[in-house]
């Protein structure tokens, strides 16, 4: 055990700001002593007990609180843990924390330190810890579902299955190595290993190709593009039902890229308003247009907004990436213009950002788009770049081994499989953990 595990940590886990109740959690070898010092006794394990809390330094009463005692190792962190559920006023929380930190061996928890200890004590894998972080950050139902699956082992279980398949392959090939003296055995053992490894590589490639996980977590991006004054900012405000962007009849009003998060049927989307595209009048507008183009080129869906009252011919002046959607939104339907010839390729919507006409249909279509892109019966395996990188590395080694099947020795093939298994081990934190801990737990809040 290193020095860190021996310290006892405490923090408020229920968020900052005044609330009816605040939860203060304590974890480590001194957690039991801390309860005795403040509550006067150790209540029965895992039962809420009402106790008067006092500051052991002065004997001053601090609160009447619910106290819970979770003896290790059957606790969330695997250590002795305690909880004080106190009245949520800032001064109450501050006084209880101050009394705790005055006890020998008790110090403030660092960001994510409870979860880090849970990981180090084998209570959860790194992939599950990442799921928990996402669960706490989840804003939409779909994000919650995906994060919950990961917090309870979805990716960890899949990685374990992949590792087991590699180990089976290695065992067969190593059996061949052991029997190398006897003529046919190696070739036969290898032949047995191959189909399983090929199936595994196909599975890894499928998981790597599936980008829904990141899309659910970060939200699909929907960029609003068009000529100046088409009503892009008005559309953004109408769809967001908030006054996010400045609207004016001056062409070239919007320069900065503006973003607003939408919840479309439980799916997160990020709506992006951009500068109108034209020959810029000055350096600032030119920079705005450059930024607009960069975001349009990276969007999952582009809405080309056209001013339907404009006599100018309709032309879509952007080329989003091939996998992105491109829809045409003809705005200002309240200013009846003449009949228009629509470009055949795009889905077209007639709306008025001013009166709200047609916006329900557009919103429903956007929800359909996001659901189709991010939804699906089964949760995706990979969400984060960290996970993707490790699995890509594993797939690379496996591919290498399979490609060299006829040329490489048993030892070299087994080595590629070992490297692949090692890379997978980094997903769950079974392997090479030290350098990963800070990356994973840094994003947690204090008290988690
Ligand atoms: N008040 C409170 N609510 C909370 C938490 C908390 O710590 N405190 N949690 C904080 O994350 C979550 C619940 N997570 C928990 C996970 C494990 C254990 C636990 O004691 N596990 C033991 C015993 C399980 C059992 O009784 O079946 C174990 O796994 O061995 C407790 C909470 C959400 N709600
Ligand atoms: N009648 C009518 N006017 C609209 C509608 N939508 C926007 N407008 C008006 O059109 C003008 C331009 O609107 P904006 O939303 O600022 O247009 P924009 O495309 O963001 O313009 P830039 O930021 O300059 O590129 C404003 O005067 C709006 O009030 C609409 O549906 N009907
Ligand atoms: Mg604008």
From TrEMBL:
Keywords: Cytoplasm, GTP-binding, Hydrolase, Magnesium, Metal-binding, Nucleotide-binding, Potassium, tRNA processing. Its cofactor is K(+). GTP binds at residues 229-234, 248-254, 273-276, 352-354. Mg(2+) binds at residues 233, 254. It is found in: Cytoplasm. Its EC number is 3.6.-.-. GO terms for biological process: tRNA methylation; tRNA wobble uridine modification. Binds 1 potassium ion per subunit. GO terms for cellular component: cytoplasm. One of its GO terms (molecular function) is metal ion binding. It is an enzyme of class 3 (hydrolase). (6S)-5-formyl-5,6,7,8-tetrahydrofolate binds at residues 25, 83, 123, 448. Exhibits a very high intrinsic GTPase hydrolysis rate. Involved in the addition of a carboxymethylaminomethyl (cmnm) group at the wobble position (U34) of certain tRNAs, forming tRNA-cmnm(5)s(2)U34. Belongs to the TRAFAC class TrmE-Era-EngA-EngB-Septin-like GTPase superfamily. TrmE GTPase family. Homodimer. Heterotetramer of two MnmE and two MnmG subunits. This is tRNA modification GTPase MnmE. It comes from Ancylobacter defluvii. The gene is mnmE.
